[in-house]
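Formin-like protein 18: structure, please.
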Amino acid sequence: MDPCPFVRITVGNLALKVPVASKPARSVVHPSSSPCFCKIKLKHFPVQTAVVPYILPESQFPDGQNQTFAATFHLSKSDLDRLAAKSIFGGNLCLKISMYTGRRGTTCGVNSGRLLGKVTVPLDLAGTESKASVFHNGWISVGKDSKGSSAQFHLKVKAEPEPRFVFQFDGEPECSPQVFQIQGNIRQPVFTCKFGFRSTGDWNHRSRPLPTESSGTRGWLSSFGSERKRPGEERKGWSITVHDLSGSPVAVASMVTPFVASSGSDRVTRSNPGSWLILRPGDGTWKPWGRLEAWRERGASDELGYRFELIPDTNGAAGIVLSESTLSSHKGGKFVIDLGSNSNGRATPCCATSPACSPRGSGDYGYGLWPYCMYRGFVMSASVEGEGKCSKPSVEVSVQHVNCTEDAAVFVALSAAIDLSMDACRLFSQRLRKELCQQNDLLG
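Here you go.
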């Protein structure tokens, strides 16, 4: 089955220069001596914000400036159709950017920045599902001072095809559902999931075992898991195995560190998170692919915190952080791996343990050669429902990262792990549904 069409709109290469003659009196904020940021708006999408670097008037962009993404918008086929319909009846579709001096944020509900100017970039998305299109790349004049001089704002706006495979769980992960591939109105089964419990030291929960694991593989598990005794309640031993349609296991998500309430509280804390190991088959055994940690954030927001890192093939190499953020425990949200974007208003802190050439963009946005990681740009996203809500995760995976069944399966297993982490991090004063409790827990 073919992938679903998606289009990625990126805004980057931002810079601002203001003529010296236009510098106002000391009492007025000036971009050269104060922070400058912008708000980027595309109809029907959340507003995104980004810092705008100030450069000297005589400088030519980029002139040594880092070229990075400022905002990213991901459009599905339905988004494209809706925006096209709106543009027919409401004029041309435009990207609107408002620039401000001062610090970001609000005070008593009032924006703290001072409006410097606005720019509008028309977008014609016809044909962008199949070929890239640059809508603007260069300088735009912004406002005028008393002497008629204009500030200059630099940006690049580009749309490019980003096809994705879309998968949908047919039920909650703990209920061992089927997983369908989705394309438009077509639903085709591609995987089955098996949820279960593993006892200490026995993670090998699957319907068709691979050959006996090597001691090296068990060494991986012991180094990532935690076998130390922990006081009080704990949620442990959960695992979910993804099988292809022939019944062969193609990915596993195994809880290797129990989710335990910290002393004196009823929550899993950031200082003592639970963790999952995501494994895929290779050389006749299971090999670690990634590690997911999750915890419950404190404070009024009451969010699920998470951190996902890729495990290099090289023994002893440090994990590469691909995603670290939070999700609302009440509303849920999206778990996203997008290296270099600023989607949803904040950048993904990609690869904190990698060398200085870690990606902050791709292609002509300054993506450098990064030998430690095969992933770049958008990698995957998975929907996560809030506590107490029926969860049937939807998973999107970039086509460029799927070369075989196992490639897709590890992302499905990862999405199941982040979804189950929402339950694993529930306050220990709240009882879990029966599918997540072992028989001896129910009897106790």
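Notes: The chain has two domains: 10-18+33-161, 164-199+234-342+371-432.
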